[in-house]
Amino acid sequence: MSFGDPNNPYGQQPPQGPYGAAPQGGQPGYGYPQQAPQQQPYGAPQQPAQYGGYPQQQAAPGYGYGQVGMAGMPTAFASWGARVGAALLDGLIVGAVPLIVGIISIIIGASANSDAHSAVSSCGSDINCLQDAQSSAQGSAGIVIILSLVAWACAIAGGIVILVKEGKTGQTPGKKALGIRLVREMNGQVPGFGLALGRRFCHFLDTPLCGLGYWWPLWDEKNQTFADKVVGTVVVRAQ
Question: Is 183 helix (H, G, I), strand (E, B) or coil?
Answer without folding.
Answer: strand
